[in-house]
Each structure stands twice: as structure tokens, then as C-alpha cells.
Amino acid sequence: MTQATGSAGAPVYGFVGLGVMGQPMALNLARAGTPLVVWNRTPERAEPLRAAGARVAASAEEVFARARVVFVMLVDETVTDAVLGRGGPDFAKLVAGRVVVSTGSTAPEYARGLAADIEAAGGRFVEAPVSGSRKPAEAGELVAMLGGDPDTVAEVRPLLAPMCRETVHCGPAGSGVLMKLAVNLYLDTTLAALAEAVHFAQRQGLDLETFRAVVDSGQLGSGITRVKVPMLAAHDFTVQAATADAYANTRLIADAARAAGIATPLLDLSSELYGESVRLGNARLDMSSVLTAIEARTDTAPPPVTD
Length: 307
Description:
Strands 1, 2, 3, 4, 5, 6, 7, 8 and 9 form a nine-stranded mixed sheet that branches. The longest helix is centred in the middle third of the chain and has 29 residues, at about 175-205. The chain has 14 helices and nine strands. About 50% of the residues lie in helices and about 15% in strands. By secondary structure, it is an alpha/beta fold. Helix 9 crosses helix 12 (about 245-260). The N and C termini lie far apart (about 80 Å). Strand 8 (about 140-150), helix 8 and strand 9 (about 165-170) form a beta-alpha-beta unit. It is an enzyme of class 1 (oxidoreductase).
């Protein structure tokens, strides 16, 4: 297959998966002038990319036919395997001679297996899971944790500049997603704790704007508190990172921890809360909806014992 080139003869790059994170990431590439061909399972998600000058492909196969480097940002491992045709006769034809850049969160053993299969088929693989939610993705402020062969990582790294403010090479395939799991452990438990603190303040009758001001004025103030405290106070769960994805990430982290014999007591408690929020119907709402699980526990708790 011959790779297409842009109007100035520049190589065309591919992007498959235009969800909550993938769409703004691809838009930043297109707006930076990167010749881009994109595809998404839900076609209307590709329309903003068309408006930004990207070519919208009719299939993932067309993306791989036109681009030598393809970014893949799909919801989970099952969907990734299905889109790539992994395990089927067309997989090798799709990835041979291509660099596949996986930007989603997966299990480390999955990343290693996918890397081995792509390399056996004549392709190359870089994992580049990103830290950040929708707003950092829109602002091009993500942090990518790269795993793979150093030469291939060096080739891919400059392409990430429109999407990421930092790129860190963590080691061979599997290292990047392990680093992402470690970062997500911190994020998931921190957000659950922040939601519990907001719940405590609200139920004690404190003014939540004052609570926000105090938190942001001290050493605990961060990008998370500045974005999430107003959302928690208003029960605004407009999706930045979905609750179902946060819950799935906690399970990935727990699985990796158990395989290594590592205890994760805070993660385990947080995972229970994210799972409860999913069961309350919040799967596709923002992960800050974990607040509703905490509220539900308060509302169903026995009344305090009084003398």
C-alpha cells in the first residue's frame, strides 16, 4: 500500500477513535496542520475533524492504507482487537509497515502482547497512554507515557507535541501503561477523597465556595480541585472522564497489583465507590459522580445514636 501525502507532499497520519479524549486530541493534530485521515465507529464524531481539514475515512482499513503512523484511541482492549482485526487473516495486512501508536489505557500484558503481534506482522508499536481528561485534551496539555523501542519512540515523539505538553519515555512496551496505572491510582483515590470532603463540608452546612477558596489557597490546591470542586458543588457531572472508565481503570490497577502481590487498600475502597456510582446509572457521566455513591451511603446509614 502506498501512503498518501498532503497538499505539500507531507506524510499523512492516521487517527482511529474519536471519543471523549480522541476527538480533541485529533483536532489538535489537525489544527496544528498535521495532514490527517480519521475514522470513528460513530460517524458523526468525525464531523468536527472534517471541518478542521482532516480527511474522514469510510473504515479503519482506509486509515491504515493511507497512513504509515496511526494513532489508536479506542474504548477498551476488546474494541481495539476488533478494529485491528487481531487474530484474523487481515491483521497482518493492516499493520505491516505501519507504526501503531496506542494512546488508551490497557493492561500491561495486553500492551506487550499487542506489541509482539504487530512486530511479528512486520509493523512497529508504541504505547502512549495519556494522563489528563477532556479539558487538558482540548488544551493540548496531556502528558504521554511512552513505551516501546527507543528508535520508534523517538520517531513518534515529535508527533505528540500538538496534543501533549510533556512526553516521557518509561521503557519497553508495558512500561508506559504501568506508569499510567500508577498515576491513575493516585488520581482515582484523590478524586474519591475530594468528593468525600465536599460531601462532608456540604452536609455540615459549610459554604462550598469558601471551601473551594480555602483548598485552592493551600498546598492541596491543584488543577483537579480547581476543576472538580465547582462540579461537585453543583452536581455538574458533564463528562470529562467517564465514571465507567474510571471504574474500569481501578480494576486494571487492582489486577496488576494482585499479579505482583501488591496491597492497594485505598484503591480498593475507591473502586467500590466508582462501581456503586456506575450502578446508580452514572456510567457515562463524569467520574466526579462518585459523589452520588458517597451520598447514597450517608442517606442509607443508620441514624446516629443519641442518649
